[in-house]
Amino acid sequence: MTQYGFHFDQNRCYACQACSIACKDWNSIDPGAEKWLTVYEWESGTFPNIRIHPLAYSCAHCEKPSCIPACPENAIYKEETYGAVLVDQDKCTGCRKCYDACPYGAPKFASDDPGEKMSKCTMCIDRLEEGLKPLCAASCPLRAFDFGPLDELIEKYTDIRWAEGMPSPEITEPAYLIWPQREKEPLVPFDAERAIELNRQRGDLGTMFETKEDLTEFESGTIGRSELRMKHESMAELMRATRNDMA
Amino acid sequence: MGTPHCMIDASAIRHRNRVAVSATQDEEESVDKQDIIDARREARKGERIFYTSCPNNGCWDSACILKCHEKDGKLIAVEPDDTVNAGMCREDVEWESIWRGMVQMRPCSMGHAWKEELYGETRLTHPMKRIGEKGPGKGYFVEIGWEEALDTIAEKMIEIKEKYGEFGIFHTQYGSFSKNGFPLAKWWPASFGFWGDHSTSGHTAGENFHLGFDLTKSMVSGTSPALPGFEASDVFNSKLIIMWGMDPVVDWFGPTSYYMQLAHEYGVKTIVVDPRYTASCEVLADQWIPIRPGTDLAMLLAMAQVLFEEDLYDHEYVAEWVEPEGFKEWRAYCLGEGEDGVAKTPEWAEAICAVPAETIREFARLYGTTKPVHLQYFYSCAKRHLGEYSAAAAMLLQTMTGNIACPGGCQTGSALPTPGRIPTPFADFKQAPSDYTIPVLCNNNKLTETLACQKDYWEGRMSEDEFRHRIGAPTDDSPLPNIQMLIIENNYVNNHHDTNKRMEGFASTEFNWGFQWHKNQPSMEFCDIVLPAPVWQFEGMDQYMYGHQRFVSGPSGMRNYFVFSDAGCEYPGEVRSKEWVWTQIAKRLGVAEQYNPRMVDVAWEDWTAAQRAIYKEAYEEWAEDKSGVLKRMGIDPKPWDEFVENPVVRIPIDTPYYPYKTCLEAGMNPFQTESGKIEFVSSYVKNNDLTKTRWRGHFDPMPVWEPSYVEGDIATAAADGFYNPKAKEYPLSLVTPVSVYRQHSSNDNNPLLREDCYRHGVWISGVDAKARGIKDGDLVRVFSETGEMELAAYVTNRMMPGTAAVHHGAWFQGGGKKTERNPYGMDMRGAPNILLDDVHLPNILGTLLTAGLVEVEKVADGDVEGYGPEAERSGMRGAATAIASRKALGEKEAL
Fold first, then answer.
1. For residue B862, what pLDDT is reported?
2. Which UniProt keywords apply (chain A) (predicted)?
């Protein structure tokens, strides 16, 4: 078996979800929580030192998948040509043990209904068999993805399988390489303290806030999507974590 | 949301009906794997491939290439462009190919979501007649047949023209640039044009007055060869890119944003100046400089002050291209040697902009010492009350640093027009010649005002002079409109500032009709007869906007290719070709032989094939290459049948277009001011009373912080100013950026987009949310002097304190509870234009306004029982409210 995998350049992704929609379109999946390719966007920092972080993650088709041993029905298996992790839905009973076991939330469910069968990214094996690439990877407007035999990808991109906020790759050895976001080096000085002071005043109209802490201290839940969460208690929670606000 | 069209495939995946076989584990797995493959193959069986492009107005100028799968007349799936570099994901081709534009034109998320748009449950598929008054909550629709619809429309057109004259009718498409989209005007004169445009309307004054450049002449009438756009690969020539209010991954989708990202990777320095930390700040830029909305001019003036004081401008360029007296005058103004005696230093600007003086100074130095610089002062920054000055100042900065017309530089403003690189086939429908020119009656962005004032004028309650001023009549003897029929072929009601006022205007006419796509589109509520519109890219063979036919190329920053948008899917329900509809109306008006002589006798069943035959004929004539031009370009046209299999013609770019390249290389002066040079003090403005011209208002001849005709400065006097005293009541400065998931308002209903991958909410900063007891996801009320809406709050520290944002293009959806501000009910879906007012005077007219002052208050917890995700589901909740409201009034059509 040759293990195939993905490479994701986090610096090129702006969480537009073209990959996710292309996947749903190709695989005829209805709108909703069955996002085989799941796109996250979250923020860190406080004004004016702020970053946003994107992550487009399908299934990592791990070298040591934790979902396979977790399935009591032996419904999940590693396919032998590309190393794709697939689910035999005829065997799946919807017990969700695979979901508990997968650190990345890759097994997907169309609803919260008990017994809803698991479905997941197939690595587009139908396309691979035709000599095509997985559609998510081929559709990225900013060309954030690459796809191919994992060893070739490692040679080209180095063996990093993790980005800030993600679970440790040691658990399952995901076939999902990542170039993590780079630090930004400002071109001109920007004194954040001074900027905050300037933002506090509003000329004749008084002040905008009182102290610096007003800008930095928040009750939990105030700020939207302030961390990466790849596992969810419900479909509603997943939808909240994967809907951005770019429209 | 199980819709029948996709259930076929979905069920194939989920229930593959495998016959149980007894086998070993390995065998079972390989059988299962083969089943997955077979199920997909089975689902794909019988599909036909066709290519198309899906540019809509508001597509931010991209013409992407879509490889479509069709079966049984329906769209099944869309793959991205594979006509070059097929099979490459990262598309790491050699530098030469990237530079020369030999890359894929991949569609955005919308490009892959069309299936849900075409077959969504809200799609309008039947002609309908309105019973009751126009406006949400005041009437309902019943289905009618095509004959009744067409007869009624033609009768009403004749009646209204007889009663009110040619200008009693207004067609809402492409009124800009002194044109109009009414397709029969040449032989049945009616309707009129607008001067000005929407997109770059905040830059028009600066371009006209200071640069002597007129976009209408170069892009529409063809009377000037001056084209100020640039091609995508020209950004690789830049050493510094400044995106001022520009968010290209959102507002300039396609090759330009992709190339800006590559430029960033290759080390071209990039800075974003914006009140929001946008997606482009993250993926395209080294640094974000947050600035208070509407204060940009102060920072630009401070930058100019540094450039003058430290002598960092391009003396050679200024000596050759700049009128010297005006240059001296503006220099004196910036340095504090002018009448007001105030030096516009970074220290002067910092409290206004909330940008530290040190940052402004170092930024100015970086700008002044790097070359070339692509400073793109983007459209919306200037699309504010009094916003024109800031755009003009940005152009003057690009001028004094010698960056306005050179490789790697930019004009900053109309960044779009570049010459096409390949002659495209022209399908000749042999319309009768006509020398009729549609007259211009008012400004592009004063239609709302026209509808609001016309009754008072025609009934003698408003003077002619006042009426002309309010609507931007081009001259004192131009004809005046009395619009009693609006022909609505877009979502025009929804998409301009002060939508509440606009809706009242659209409701005030005698009879409106139009084409609409969805049953809950707000513009439909203002039609007395509504016809189901095709989605041209996928259904039938109609032409696109501005007479753009189906051989589609840019304007996209990359004009080295065209794609033929072939006949794709069948028209759903009773949807018919617009060209067929116009031909039937033309017959009733007696001008069909002139409008569409080759198609006039074609039966509906044969319509698409007949259109396609004319496109084939066009292609074959083009392919003959009589002039030899294609051969010289290295294009070897394939026979038609082969061509349509892979209908993209693409050639490598030699040298990318930079602003005004064609003029400069031909030794022509693109700057047609009175002095023939770029004028820092505009002689046109100085020598004319603008209130007597089409501009109808005041403007100072150079960009100044305190215009002579207002009290105070731009940030306090502007209706949307950050320091306007009105901000005591409406403290949040609102911007209304375009979005990733709508082309203007197209696709707002698409369930693969709205609520699946985005939530349409109001952006509010953490500090402002905390002060209002708001948490992310809460249901909030956003209100201004002009309107109000309820939607979810997106609480983020990506916003500057005191600012808010609601993305453009969401549909107004009233019909629910009446409110003081909204005559048609509380907006359930968040159409930001209802929050913006319609104020231009005493300033010049012409700008489409995109900013305002608002307040936000909490309505309900996002997680209270029964609300939960509901607060985030304004889309279909709004749609359901609108449609239920009509149903309650008697609509018979069941969803």
1. 81
2. 4Fe-4S, Electron transport, Iron, Iron-sulfur, Metal-binding, Repeat, Transport
pLDDT value of position B772: 98
Question: In angstroms, rounded to a whole number, what is the distance separating the alpha carbons of residues B151 and B888?
Answer: 29
Task: Please write down the long-range contacts of B584-592, taking CB distance under 8 Å and 24 or more positions apart.
Answer: B584/B146, B584/B150, B585/B150, B585/B153, B585/B154, B585/B157, B585/B184, B586/B184, B586/B187, B586/B188, B588/B150, B588/B151, B588/B154, B589/B154, B589/B157, B589/B158, B589/B184, B589/B188, B590/B188, B591/B184, B591/B187, B591/B188
Residue A187 contacts B, CB cutoff 8 Å: yes
* Structure confidence at residue B823 as a pLDDT band (50, 70, 90): very high
Average pLDDT of the residues in B423-434: 96
CB contact under 8 A, B807 and A247: yes
Contact call for A21 and B43, based on CB within 8 A: no
pLDDT of residue B537: 94
d(C-alpha A158, C-alpha A149), whole Å: 13
Q: Would the CB atoms of B356 and A240 count as touching at under 8 Å?
A: no
Tell me how crowded residue B428 is: count the other CB atoms within 10 A of its CB.
11
Residue B21 has pLDDT above 60, yes or no: no
A82 vs B contacts (CB less than 8 Å): none
What per-residue confidence (pLDDT) applies to B17? 33
Nearest chain B residue to A237, by CA: B869
- The 3-state DSSP class for residue B746 equals strand
Please give the CATH topology (third level) of the domain spanning A4-184+226-242.
Alpha-Beta Plaits (3.30.70)
Once rounded to an integer, what is the mean pLDDT over residues A69-93?
A: 97
Contact B52, B78 (CB under 8 A): no
Mean pLDDT of B879-890: 78
